[in-house]
Amino acid sequence: MTANVIVSGSLRNRLALILTGGAALLAVVLFVAVRVLATQVAQQGQDNILNASMSSVLDTAVIRDGRVTLDFPYSSLSMLNTQADDRVFYAIYEDGTLLSGYDWLVVPRNVAPESTAFENTTFNGDQLRIATGARVLIGSDGPRNVFVSIAQTQDALSSTLHAISRNVALLGLGFFLMSSALAIWAASTTSRQMHRLTTSVTRRGPQDLSPVTKPVPSEMAPLVASLNTFMSRLDHTLTQSEDFIAEAAHRIRTPLATVRSHAEATLQRVDREDNRKSLQAMVRAIDESSRAAGQLLDHAMVTFRAENLEMPRVDLTELLQELVVSMTPVAEMKDITFTMKLDSSATLHGDPILLQNAMRNLIDNAVKYAPSETGVCVEISKSPTLSVSVYDDGQGFAPDEIETLSGRFVRGKNMGNKVGSGLGLTIAQEVAVVHGGKMTLSNRPEGGACVTLFF
Amino acid sequence: MRYIVLLIALFFPVFGFSQEWEDQQTFGSSDQAPLRILSSTDTSFFAPIIEDFIASYSNIAVEYVVTGTADIDRIFRATPEQFDVVISSAMDLQLKLTNDGFAVPVLDVEHPDWAQWGDSLFAFTSEPAAIVINRHALSDLPTPSSRQDLIELMRKHPHRFQGRVGTYDVRQSGLGYLFATQDARASETYWRLMEVMGRMDAQLYCCSGQMIDDLREGDLLLAYNVLGSYARNQAEISDELMVILPSDFPITMMRTVLVSANATNPEHAESFVRHLLALQTAADPLTFPLPPLSGFDDNIAQRTINLNPALMTYLDQMKRDAFISEWENAIVQDK
Prior knowledge:
A: alpha+beta, Beta-Lactamase, Heat Shock Protein 90, five-stranded antiparallel beta sheet, five-stranded mixed beta sheet, 8 helices, 51% helix, B: alpha/beta, D-Maltodextrin-Binding Protein, domain 2, 2 domains, 17% strand
């Protein structure tokens, strides 16, 4: 059935993909955000210490004997001691002149007093962070600008960041894995609801058009509601047509019986051979019509009973024996002998009227199509499952018709001039299906048709 | 052109020898260039260490040159490619060399964290600065145990000490400058002591060795801030010397070693440092005659000068000028 459905993707996969993709994206965002934040915080920490160190140096600037001197304390540099033994450089300038420190350390000249400028630079391949501050000293000869820069390598910073990055990466990975598990679980839970509905619809018998009564999630309610409406409309239409057929068959059968009795009466009185023949043909046609009407009624009954099935225990053996006994007179007219291969204790839960109807159709068919002076065999087998086979010694089914013969109003080509409606096998099949079984048609290797009902 | 090259080749050794070393010795023989060690430590202390190193590695020769701590810094900064290993007692100069990128890291060394800096500079001895006294010359005077005792002693008996006290000339000696700055950082007593010593017409020395020699000779009665390790070594030989660790605040220095970033023989240099540190750990007096590192938790170690960037504070040109001028005012006085 799914072969006819155009499938485009999977809801579950799509849901899982969106959720895990979202989780991966969130994990990356988390990693980047924490990393950026950690970098800022760590850099802020280093900047604060550099600033404190720089300020403590700059604060000692005084003009002594007309010269700018800085007698900075031991703590100015000792506060820059780090776990990673970061290297420290500094430069002290008065305007453009280096007073002391490292001459390669270029000090920015546009630093406003009482503020600190931070910048990054590299020295011999090492990343340096530089803090620069300025102060104006008023000497006897006018203002003098003092600049102090303190630079530090970033080994401790980068090792801290490395540790943080590793931890955050682990956190992100854990977050992603948990979210993925959650996503897969959510996706499969959601699709399980769909699956449950599918199963409950698929498991139904072909005649079951009752509405779905199991609770479904609100998202699926419109779908199930339309499905229910659709099925009830279908059920209504089917019932109507079955009713119509049954009514029609019933209405036809009674007038047909009247017409037949008139035809028979007329046949008694008619002597001309050609008139008799046409009357006989008429009676025959009436028989056929009436039989067809009868079977249409049977069929309607099977459909009706199948919908309101009760399943008492039925003795199949007894049922078949009675049937054979009742059919024996008809068989004897064609010199057909019945053979019974019955198990004494074959019982099943089923509808006795339906079963009897199905069996009668099968035996009737066998008697009808079997050549004269042959045998018809009725056999019950219990293995592998309970089954009833009816077979004859006739010419069998045409192999190309075996698949289609059980359809409604389908009749075999080699039926000759036998009276039939084409509903017998249909009824038998429907009864088998209603009882949870099936019907198979086959030709026996030694010749003859065989119909088997499996229950 | 060829003649010029020849001339340069002829004169090059002359330039090489133009440097006057306190000592210069070659250990072992090898067909390769020797491992060049620039050191401030007397050869006698390092000979067992180098011999043990040579015995462990085949085909290694070691050239060991000795000069003062300030010279080491000056020479090595000028020609860093000439030396593979630098050993000095001036921790501040060594740390500045390392900070300025003259040292290369030696990784994965089992060494306490407080005794190394940036995986490049390794301390391997603990040596206190001591007061050394000539017992005979002191004779009846009480033995001083602290700087304060020393000041009072010299004030009470100026004639006994006149011209017979000695200390480092901080202008010449890197180690002397380190001791002086750390002293001054710890207490004002240092300046009073220097003033008193200045009044006693203190003799100034470049190195501990000469101070100890003059003490033994009796030329000096007392020397301040002498390397305790050298003095103890001499005190064992002659009973004239008495080594006193000031009870108020003994300053302990750690001798440090680094591998030159421009070493021509970096692998051997690294092997030597590893070997030296391993010998320090073993602390067998036969192969390691220097005082090994004392534990950081010990009382003495608490006054140990820390390897930390603050050591560069007094190397700042302005601070150095200010300190030297103050020191000169105190000790040189009317000279």
